[in-house]
Amino acid sequence: MADWAIITGASRGIGREAAARFRREGWNVMNISRQPCPVPDVLNLTVDLAVPGWEARVGQVLGESLGRAPGRVCLVHNAALYGHDDALSLSGEHLRRVLEVNIVAPALLNALVRGYLTDGSSILYVGSTLSEKAVRGAASYVTSKHALVGLMRSTCQDLAGTRVHTVCICPGFTDTEMMRESVGASEAARASTAARQTFGRLIAPEEIADVLLYCAQTPVMNGAVLHANLGQIET
Ligand SMILES: NC(=O)c1ccc[n+]([C@@H]2O[C@H](COP(=O)([O-])OP(=O)(O)OC[C@H]3O[C@@H](n4cnc5c(N)ncnc54)[C@H](OP(=O)(O)O)[C@@H]3O)[C@@H](O)[C@H]2O)c1
């Protein structure tokens, strides 16, 4: 029996490290993103989750790959868009695009994967510190990450009795392209971001990958919102 991790956005950042971590543990890994995952032996499915209509092709590949090997499945909703915006001037087009990737895609993928969720399988949502608080200038991201917690809690309830578990893992400042796009790529920007953590450093994406693997193997975490942020200094 083959175990499968299906990870959105494993072409870089946290998703790429999660793909590497699951592979080292012997899981088969499928990446769903626009660019391929650089980790060897990962099955890449090139999909733009912002453009509706991808479900038929993903469903077909899932059937071809998972249909033959009903081991555990871990679906990791990791891909996300982050944009600087403002709750009082959001454009519909921009908000729809963010919600399409950050919320609609996870919900549609859940439906596609549901039939393959054997005992011990899991659905992991990658939230954010901003799943439970807001900062200025990130309204669409904050809104979508709060919604992800609601989707995870609903997932927990709607999977009752199936022995499939779900967790929302909420990273803090993690050293990836998304973080650099958000706070700036200069050394000064990185240093001032690191200084906002109680440990005085950024989180390595590998650390979040470890938490994801732990959650995939730990059903008692079912329904939990798990913050993995090194402790942020509140100002
Ligand atoms: N880094 C942080 O500080 C931080 C903090 C809190 C939470 N998080 C969360 O952690 C997760 C991973 O973040 P990251 O920092 O690793 O981000 P990242 O480096 O920007 O990677 C984002 C991934 O999402 C994929 N993606 C984006 N748009 C997509 C689309 N339209 N269709 C398909 N895939 C798409 C990208 O793949 P392609 O470009 O190849 O499509 C990429 O692999 C996200 O959910 C993020 O919100 C990150």
Automatic annotation (TrEMBL):
Source taxon at top rank: Bacteria
Keywords annotated in UniProt: Oxidoreductase
CDD domains to which the protein is assigned, alphabetical: SDR_c
GO molecular function: oxidoreductase activity
InterPro entries found in the cross-reference section: NAD(P)-bd_dom_sf (IPR036291), Sc_DH/Rdtase_CS (IPR020904), SDR_fam (IPR002347)
Pfam families linked to this entry: adh_short_C2 (PF13561)
UniProt xrefs under PROSITE patterns: ADH_SHORT
PANTHER family with a match to the protein in the record: OXIDOREDUCTASE, SHORT-CHAIN DEHYDROGENASE/REDUCTASE FAMILY (AFU_ORTHOLOGUE AFUA_5G02870) (PTHR43639), SHORT-CHAIN DEHYDROGENASE_REDUCTASE FAMILY PROTEIN (PTHR43639:SF1)
Family as reported in the entry's similarity comment: Belongs to the short-chain dehydrogenases/reductases (SDR) family.
Protein name in UniProt: Oxidoreductase
